[in-house]
Design a protein that fits this description.
Chain A is built from 12 helices and 2 strands; from the N terminus they run ααααααααααββαα. By secondary structure, chain A is mainly α. Chain B folds into 2 domains: 353 residues, no CATH class; 69 residues, no CATH class. Classes of the chains: A mainly alpha (355), B mainly alpha (482).
């Protein structure tokens, strides 16, 4: 296998990792405002992703940086093409990231509501926008000989792109609901389990539509890509498992469904990386955007040594924070000093807020 | 037009980003020191201090991280021609930064924030050290990438006349990288310790927890003084190195229009002289000092901008190779003069410490919270000096800034992004400043007689002998932190 193909695969794995890992924390971010009946329930939902969301987001950064290093021309075209969409994406990433840390720092309802909705809306916009971008890259955009986009912002809102965005949004919701089912107890738990059952069937229909459109709409023949079949089956399985209360398996199936959905898009894309509707000769491909082999060799050595280490310590984090979260008995929650304590890693749930 | 706008946008967002970065690097290290003291001495005051300053650290990290995302995206958004041309070299360190530093920093920060009741004391301490280390690793990669723009190394030109990486090691042994990286880390320690000193002084002036905040005032001065002295030395040496590879940058920083062959005088300040036909009014000048600063010898030659301009026209073709002299001249002086003032202030603090009078010195305690402004001005001035001094090049001698912009991005799009980022950054800046002041002025949390840890069974006993033991599974009720 040529090194550039290897790096397409590695980058695909980073994108899949991003959609699977942040998928559930986007889902939780979106759902927490609606599924939580009171402040404590919403906090439980946010805290279920609290220790891990930031590490998950690095998958996005590395996926982008890998494109920069391994396929500089793809990076250049992609980021300049989606300019205004990326401004919105960055805005969403900024307000969402800050919301986690800042929401509880000030005891003021308007302050808290602002950050709560920043988290909710940001969590919805990010998978939607990244999804639109991937849909566009596969479906094609007007790109000229010099590999520059010749359209405007509205030209980015293609039907297939938008549908891809919606698919990522719905899959993130399903992942978030099945994840919360694993991390909660009591009434909140019963509610998310019911929700994940319903969401599962919605997601199954949406993903079925996505793979059909991807496959038939692009005229790649009748025989389906195995990943496309897997995506539909996994989401159906997740819906069924959620309804029969097999929570762990429901989450795992949703994750496989997400991975297979993104994977099927990327396999349809390969060996192209961005399709030109102006002229197929102007397509960006793995071959015409790749860095020279020396750069790829250096990157391969670095990735082989350090990526397994990353997987080990990120995996360990999930092990450390395993288990369900529930409302602490007021005043006794672990990690708390007195409610006024300024030490950060401390709850500030006071008796009045915990009800 | 588009180039200037793109430069404004990049300069605004990166200067803003770099207000938070040095605080993060410096404070992470200092918080790790505090937690180490708690681990070793089991004195609960260190735990309370760790959590107090840890909160300030986290308030900063939140904005430092998200504004860094903007930087990561902007290379492709605004500078796509640059990215296309040199991504095979410049992209490498960025990808490594993600893989080696960002994963480490974010994962272990999550473990540190949420892990107080879940990890052993030792493992929890290791988390903050990994975070502190990761911030410094991250700085190494981005500085290697930036140094390549100042002094490109480790590449060959291919048949299409495009630079192609052929020696990754050269990027990390680049003398510009080695000196500027050390300079940045020291500047970050200066920034972090001045933040800690400012907060400690404010608290001491109100006679709150004098015992505790005298400790942090001491620690911050112990870190501050050597870091600042070394930063001045390394910065001066960096000037000599940059003078070798980017003589125009240094000539502009001295407003040196014509070559001076030896015993060149250093002007402490001047009015005018920003363009070649203006005669500057030098306020005070010190004989020989410029030669010493620029070359380490009294007889050293300092090239003038006129001569360099003529040389570059011959070498690279017609064009203006002189950066903005006013920005160069004053950014260098703001940085150096403020550093000197801060050093005098720090020595005053050290003298007070020696006399055991720091908590009683009304003036020192009153001034310290204002001195914290200085490092932010110095850091910003330092970046303006180094980046403005590289102009008109985006990669020194290889590619001009004007050739690096995205050809298909319109001025309107850049305007929109600039306005959006300035607006959101202003809001976040206010929120951050409010939280820093609010939490910096809070009482030091938790009374000192409380159990020095949280989360372990309450009947554990205070002898610390079970420190390493895992908390009982039944006690694993996760805290609500966010």
């Amino acid at each position: 296998m040529h090194l550039s193909t290897l790096w397409f695969v590695i980058d695909a794995l980073f994108w899949i990792g991003f959609f699977v890992l942040e998928g559930f924390d986007f889902g939780v971010g979106m759902l927490h405002s609606f599924i939580g009946r009171d402040d404590t329930e919403r906090r439980i939902a946010v805290n279920s992703i609290g220790p891990v969301w930031d590490g998950n987001e690095v998958w996005l950064i590395v996926a982008g940086a890998v494109i920069f290093a391994a396929f500089p021309s793809w990076y250049a075209t992609m980021f300049s093409t989606f300019y205004l969409a990326l401004v919105v994406l960055l805005l969403a990433l900024i307000v969402r990231g800050v919301a986690f840390e800042y929401q509880r720092k000030v005891d003021n309802p308007r302050w808290r509501a602002s950050f709560r909705w920043s988290l909710t809306i940001g969590s919805a916009l990010i998978p939607l926008l990244v999804g639109v971008a991937f849909g566009d890259m596969l479906h094609g955009l007007p790109i000229n000989r010099a590999h520059n986009y010749t359209g405007n912002f509205l030209g980015l809102l293609t039907p297939f792109g938008l549908y891809t965005g919606v698919t990522m949004l719905v899959m993130s919701l399903l992942m978030g609901a099945t994840y919360l089912a694993l991390k909660t107890t009591g009434e909140l738990h019963d509610r998310v389990v019911r929700l994940s059952g319903t969401l599962g069937w919605v997601a199954a229909v949406v993903v079925w539509g996505f793979v059909t459109w991807t496959h038939l709409g692009l005229g790649t023949g009748f025989v389906p890509n195995p990943l496309e079949v897997l995506a539909v089956l996994a989401v159906i399985a997740s819906a069924w498992l959620a309804n029969v209360k097999r929570e762990g398996w429901a989450f795992a199936s949703a994750a496989i469904g997400m991975a297979a959905t993104v994977g099927s898009l990327l396999t349809e894309l390969y060996p192209r990386v961005m399709v030109s509707t102006t002229n197929a000769a102007y397509n960006l491909t793995v071959g015409n955007t790749t860095s020279p082999s020396y750069t790829l060799k250096v990157m391969t050595v670095v990735a082989v040594i350090f990526f397994p280490v990353v997987l080990v310590y990120q995996g360990w984090t999930y092990h450390v924070f395993r288990g369900r979260l529930s409302a602490p008995r007021v005043g006794t929650e672990v990690g708390a000093g007195d409610p006024d304590t300024s030490g950060e890693p401390v709850s500030t749930v006071g008796p009045t807020e915990a009800t | 037009m588009s180039t200037d706008l793109a430069r404004w946008q990049f300069a605004t967002t990166s200067i803003y980003h770099f207000l938070f970065v040095p605080v993060t690097i410096g404070l992470a290290f200092l918080v790790a020191l505090l937690q180490t003291s708690w681990y070793r001495h089991e004195n609960p005051v260190y735990r309370r201090l760790t959590r107090f300053f840890g909160t300030l650290l986290l308030i900063n990290v939140a904005i430092g991280v998200v504004t860094g995302l903007v930087q990561e995206f902007e290379f492709g958004m605004n500078w796509s021609s640059y990215s296309r041309e040199v991504g095979n070299i410049f992209g490498g360190p960025l990808a490594m930064e993600g893989l080696l530093a960002f994963f480490l920093e974010s994962t272990f920060l999550g473990l540190w924030i949420f892990g107080w009741d879940r990890l052993s004391k030792k493992a929890h301490l290791a988390c903050i050290w990994l975070v502190a280390g990761a911030t410094m690793i991250s700085a190494a990669f981005i500085m290697a990438a930036n140094s390549w723009m100042q002094h490109p190394v480790g590449y060959v030109m291919n048949a299409q006349h495009q630079p192609v990486l052929n020696n990754i090691g050269a990027l990390f042994t680049n003398p510009v990288f080695l000196w500027s990286y050390v300079h940045i880390v020291l500047a970050s320690l200066v920034t972090g310790s001045l933040v800690m000193l400012a907060v400690s002084a404010w608290q001491l002036r109100r006679e709150r927890e004098v015992e505790a905040f005298r400790r942090t005032a001491t620690i911050s001065l112990i870190v501050l003084i050597p870091s600042l002295v070394l930063a001045l030395f390394v910065g001066s040496e960096l000037g000599v190195i940059e003078g070798t590879y980017q003589p125009m940058k240094i000539a502009a920083a001295e407003a040196q229009w014509n070559t001076c062959n030896s015993h060149c005088a250093f002007s402490l300040g001047q009015v005018g002289g920003g363009t070649n036909d203006e005669a500057p009014t030098q306020i005070v000048s010190i004989p020989d000092l410029l030669s010493i600063l620029a070359t380490n010898h009294v007889n050293g030659q300092v090239k003038g901008m006129n001569q360099l301009q003529a040389q570059y026209v011959k070498e690279y073709g017609a064009g203006n190779y002189v950066p903005n002299v006013f920005v160069q001249y004053w950014s260098m002086r703001v940085m150096a003069y403020l550093a000197t003032l801060v050093l005098l202030f720090a020595l005053w603090g050290a003298w007070l410490l020696r006399k055991h009078r720091i908590e009683n010195s009304k003036w020192f305690l009153r001034i310290a919270p204002w001195v914290v402004v200085a490092p932010f001005l110095m850091n910003t001035a330092g970046w303006m000096l180094t980046e403005n001094g590289r102009q008109p090049w985006i990669v020194q001698g290889l590619m001009k800034t004007v050739d690096g912009v995205s050809p298909n991005v319109t001025a309107l799009e850049i305007w929109i992004s600039l306005v959006v980022f300035v607006a959101i950054y202003a809001v976040l800046g206010v929120a951050d400043a409010y939280l820093m002041i609010h939490y910096g002025r809070k009482e030091l949390g938790e009374s000192s007689d409380k159990e020095p840890d949280s989360g372990s069974p309450p009947d554990r006993g205070g002898d610390g002998s079970e420190r390493e033991s895992e908390p009982d599974e039944s006690q694993r009720v996760p805290a609500l932190i966010y």
